[in-house]
C-alpha cells in the first residue's frame, strides 16, 4: 500500500521544541487522515535541528465510499423540524427522503446520505497545508512579507505519496510561498547540496549519506556511547545528564564527540558551580576521575568533522570555559566576603508576589512558622529560627543571580564557610526539597522544620489570596509544594497533623490520593480511609496500607462481604423506619447463640480496635477486625434479622449498626468496591 513522506525543512528549530513538535505533527496528520477515511497501518515522526519529518505507511489510494441513514422527524411534523432535518442531511427537498415505518412510533422520514470516496492525494493536498497553518508552536515567527507562522523560516517542503515500486506522486500544495516537492538538503556544512527523494527508505538513506542522523534517539545514543568510550580511554567517566543530552542531540545532525580541559585551579570552586557553568554556557558534559572527584575535563559535541581533528573547536571551547569559570570564581569569592545575613535587607527589594509582599515579608512569616513547627519534629527552636532567617539569603548573591538553579545549595556552601552550625547549613540547601518525585527528602530535624514551613508558608499564602491551581495551570508549583509536604511527613514517619483551612486540606487529600495511587494503592481503598477532616497524612497512608493487607486475605474479603450485607440491611430498614439504629444492644433481648456470640465479639473487637487506633497501630486494628469474620458468617447463616418480634428485630439491627460502627473506626468500608 502507498506511504506518505512529509518533510518540513527550515532554519534551526530550538532544541527544547523538537521532540514535542514531532509528536504533535504525527498526531495532527494521522488524526486528519482518519477523519478523512484514510486509515493507515503505522506512523513515525522524526526531528533534527533543521527538519520535521513524518512517514505514514499503509495508506489506501482512495478513501472508501460511505452510506449513512439519518433518521428524521415523523410524517406530519411541524415545518421547522422538517427544515432542520433537511439542512442536517444536506437535502433540498423532503421528497429526497424515504419513509419508513415503526410499529410503535409510526411513519418517519429517513435520509440516505451516500458519499463517494476521494483520491488520497486530493485529500492530502487539503490536509497538509491545514495542519501546517494550525500547528501549535510554543513560539513562532513570520518572515518576509508573508503571514504564515512557523517556528523558524521554512526553506523547503517534501511531500510524496506512492507505493514501494512506483514513482511517487508529489502532493500538490503551496504554503509560505513554497511549493511542495521532492527536494531536501543534507548537513549544512558537510553535505549542503539538494537531494531528490521518493519515499521514506531512500530518504533516510540519502540523509545518512549526507551526514544527517534523522532519529533524535539514535543521535542521543551516539553521543552517549562515544562520550563514554572517549572518557573511559582517559580513565574518566561522564557525569550523565539526560536533560543536557536531549538538548545537545537537538543541536546537531551529525554528532562528533571531543574532549577538552580546563585549569585544575578552578576545581577549588564547588563542583556544582563548575558543572552549572560548563553546562549552561557551552552545553558540555563534565567528567569524574577514578576516585569520583570532578576532573578538569569536559566533553564537547560538535556538529561537524573538523579537518584538524578538532583542535580549533576544542581550543575555542576551552577559552570560553576558562572565561566563564573565571567569572564564577569572581562571584564566589565576592559572595564569601559578605556574611549571608548582610544580604537580608536586599530581600525587601525583591517582590515575591504583588498580593503577598516581598521576599523579606515571606521570610518573616517563614521564621515564625518554622519556630512553631520545630518542637513537633524534634528540632532545636533557635537553630530553626536561624536557618529559616538565612534560607533565602543566597537569592541576592552573585552566584545565584547567575545560576538560579543553585539557590539553596550556594546557601549551604556560604553558611559552611562562615562557620554556621552544620544543621543550619544543611537546612539552607534542603528546605527547597523535594522538588520532584525522585528528589531527596530532608531527614534532619532542622531541615525538616524549615522545609515544611517553607512549603506551608507558600501554600497558605496563595490560598489566602485565592490563587489556586486550576486544571493544568499551576504557575506557582503549588501541587509540587503539597506533594513535598506529604513526602516529608510520610517518608520520615512524622505525626504531624496539618492545621490548615478545609479547602487547602482537601487539596492535600487530592495530592495524597495521587501519590498513593501512583504507589499502587486502589482508589477505593484510598477513599475509604480519607474523611473530610483527616489531617494526618501519615495516618491516612498507614490506614490505606493496612486496609489493603486486610482485604488481600480470605478473612478480610469475607468480612467485607458480611459488612456489605449488614450495611445494605441497615440502609433499607433505616429508610423504612425513618430512623437510625445507634448500636445500643440489649444483651437480654439476644435469643440465639450466634447473635450472642457476635455481640460479645463486636464489643471485644470494638475496644481492641479503638486501643490500636489510639496508638496508630492500624495493622493491629485490621487484625482485630479480621477475627470478626467467623461470628459474622455464623450470624448471617443462623439469624433472621427481621424477626416478627419488633423488639428482637430492633436489637438485631442495633447489633449490625454496632458492627458497622466498629469497622468504621478504621475505614469507611462502604466506599470499598466488592
From TrEMBL:
Q: What class of enzyme is it?
A: ligase
- Quote any Pfam family the record assigns: tRNA_synt_2f
The protein's gene is named glyS
EC number assigned by the record:
6.1.1.14
> What Gene Ontology cellular component terms go with this record?
cytosol
The protein here is known as Glycine--tRNA ligase beta subunit
Q: Name one GO molecular function term.
A: ATP binding
Q: Which reaction does it catalyse?
A: tRNA(Gly) + glycine + ATP = glycyl-tRNA(Gly) + AMP + diphosphate
> Superkingdom, according to UniProt?
Bacteria
Q: Where is this region: Disordered?
A: 58-77
In the UniProt record, does the keyword Oxidoreductase occur? no
**In what residue span(s) does the DALR anticodon binding domain sit?**
561-664
Q: Which organism is it from?
A: Devosia ureilytica
Please report which protein family the annotation says this sequence is part of. Belongs to the class-II aminoacyl-tRNA synthetase family.
Query: Which InterPro entries does the protein's record reference?
Result: DALR_anticod-bd, Gly-tRNA-synth_bsu, Gly-tRNA-synth_heterodimer
Q: Where in the cell is it found?
A: Cytoplasm
Question: What interactions and quaternary structure are annotated?
Answer: Tetramer of two alpha and two beta subunits.
Instruction: Give the GO terms filed under biological process for this record.
Output: arginyl-tRNA aminoacylation; glycyl-tRNA aminoacylation
Q: Which UniProt keywords apply?
A: Aminoacyl-tRNA synthetase, ATP-binding, Cytoplasm, Ligase, Nucleotide-binding, Protein biosynthesis
Keyword Cytoplasm (UniProt): yes
Amino acid at each position: 500500500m502507498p506511504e506518505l513522506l512529509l518533510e518540513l525543512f527550515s532554519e534551526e528549530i530550538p532544541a527544547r521544541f523538537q521532540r514535542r513538535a514531532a509528536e504533535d505533527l504525527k498526531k495532527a496528520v494521522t488524526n486528519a487522515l482518519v477523519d478523512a477515511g484514510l486509515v493507515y497501518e503505522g506512523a513515525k515522526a522524526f526531528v533534527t535541528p533543521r527538519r520535521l519529518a513524518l512517514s505514514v505507511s499503509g495508506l489506501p489510494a482512495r478513501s472508501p465510499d460511505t452510506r449513512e441513514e439519518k433518521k428524521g422527524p415523523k410524517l406530519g411534523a411541524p415545518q421547522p423540524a422538517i427544515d432542520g432535518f433537511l439542512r442536517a442531511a444536506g437535502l433540498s427537498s423532503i421528497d429526497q427522503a424515504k419513509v419508513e415505518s415503526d410499529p410503535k412510533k409510526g411513519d418517519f422520514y429517513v435520509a440516505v446520505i451516500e458519499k463517494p470516496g476521494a483520491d488520497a492525494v486530493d485529500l492530502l493536498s487539503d490536509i497538509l497545508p491545514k495542519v501546517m497553518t494550525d500547528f501549535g508552536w510554543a513560539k513562532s515567527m513570520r518572515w518576509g512579507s508573508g503571514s504564515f507562522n512557523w517556528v523558524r523560516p521554512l526553506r523547503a517542503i517534501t511531500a510524496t505519496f506512492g507505493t514501494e515500486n512506483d514513482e511517487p506522486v508529489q502532493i500538490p500544495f503551496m504554503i509560505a510561498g513554497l511549493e511542495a516537492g521532492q527536494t531536501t538538503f543534507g548537513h549544512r556544512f558537510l553535505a549542503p547540496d539538494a537531494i531528490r527523494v521518493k519515499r521514506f527508505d531512500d530518504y533516510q538513506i540519502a540523509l545518512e549519506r549526507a551526514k544527517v542522523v534523522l532519529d533524535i534517539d539514535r543521535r542521543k545514543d551516539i553521543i552517549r556511547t562515544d562520550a563514554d568510550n572517549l572518557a573511559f580511554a582517559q580513565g574518566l567517566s561522564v557525569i550523565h545528564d539526560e536533560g543536557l543530552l536531549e538538548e545537545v542531540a537537538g543541536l546537531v545532525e551529525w554528532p562528533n564527540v571531543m574532549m577538552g580541559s580546563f585549569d585544575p585551579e578552578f576545581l577549588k570552586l564547588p563542583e556544582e558551580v563548575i558543572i552549572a557553568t560548563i553546562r549552561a554556557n557551552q552545553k558540555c558534559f563534565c567528567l569524574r576521575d577514578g576516585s569520583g572527584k570532578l576532573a578538569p575535563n569536559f566533553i564537547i559535541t560538535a556538529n561537524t568533522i573538523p579537518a584538524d581533528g578538532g583542535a580549533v573547536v576544542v581550543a575555542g571551547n576551552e577559552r570560553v570555559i576558562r572565561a566563564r569559570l573565571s567569572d564564577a570564581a569572581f562571584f564566589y569569592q565576592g559572595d564569601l566576603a559578605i556574611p549571608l545575613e548582610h544580604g537580608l535587607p536586599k530581600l525587601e527589594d525583591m517582590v515575591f508576589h504583588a498580593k503577598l509582599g516581598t521576599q523579606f515579608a515571606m521570610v518573616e512569616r517563614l521564621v515564625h512558622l518554622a519556630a512553631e513547627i520545630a518542637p513537633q519534629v524534634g528540632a532545636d527552636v533557635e537553630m530553626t529560627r536561624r536557618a529559616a532567617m538565612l534560607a533565602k539569603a543566597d537569592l541576592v548573591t552573585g552566584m545565584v543571580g547567575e545560576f538560579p538553579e543553585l539557590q539553596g545549595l550556594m546557601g549551604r556552601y556560604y553558611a559552611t564557610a562562615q562557620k554556621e552550625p552544620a544543621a543550619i547549613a544543611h537546612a539552607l540547601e534542603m528546605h527547597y526539597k523535594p522538588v520532584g518525585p525522585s528528589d531527596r527528602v530532608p531527614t534532619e530535624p532542622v531541615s525538616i522544620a524549615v522545609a515544611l514551613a517553607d512549603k506551608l508558608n507558600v501554600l497558605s499564602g496563595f490560598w489566602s489570596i485565592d490563587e489556586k491551581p486550576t486544571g493544568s495551570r499551576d504557575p506557582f508549583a503549588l501541587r509540587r509544594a503539597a506533594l513535598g509536604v506529604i513526602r516529608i511527613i510520610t517518608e520520615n514517619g512524622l505525626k504531624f497533623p496539618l492545621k490548615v483551612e478545609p479547602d487547602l486540606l482537601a487539596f492535600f487529600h487530592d495530592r495524597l490520593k495521587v501519590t498513593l495511587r501512583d504507589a499502587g494503592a486502589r482508589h477505593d481503598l484510598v477513599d475509604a480511609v480519607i474523611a473530610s477532616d483527616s489531617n494526618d497524612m501519615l495516618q491516612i497512608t498507614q490506614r490505606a496500607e493496612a486496609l489493603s493487607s486486610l482485604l488481600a486475605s480470605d478473612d478480610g474479603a469475607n468480612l467485607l462481604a458480611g459488612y456489605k450485607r449488614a450495611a445494605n440491611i441497615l440502609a433499607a430498614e433505616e429508610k423504612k423506619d425513618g430512623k437510625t439504629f445507634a448500636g445500643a444492644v440489649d444483651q437480654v433481648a439476644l435469643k440465639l447463640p450466634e447473635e450472642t456470640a457476635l455481640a460479645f465479639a463486636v464489643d471485644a473487637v470494638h475496644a481492641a480496635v479503638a486501643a490500636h487506633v489510639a496508638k496508630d497501630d492500624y495493622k493491629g486494628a485490621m487484625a482485630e477486625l479480621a477475627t470478626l469474620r467467623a461470628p459474622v458468617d455464623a450470624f448471617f447463616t443462623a439469624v433472621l434479622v427481621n424477626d416478627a418480634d419488633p423488639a428482637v428485630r430492633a436489637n438485631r439491627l442495633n447489633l449490625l449498626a454496632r458492627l458497622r460502627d466498629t469497622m468504621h473506626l478504621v475505614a469507611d468500608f462502604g466506599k470499598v468496591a466488592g
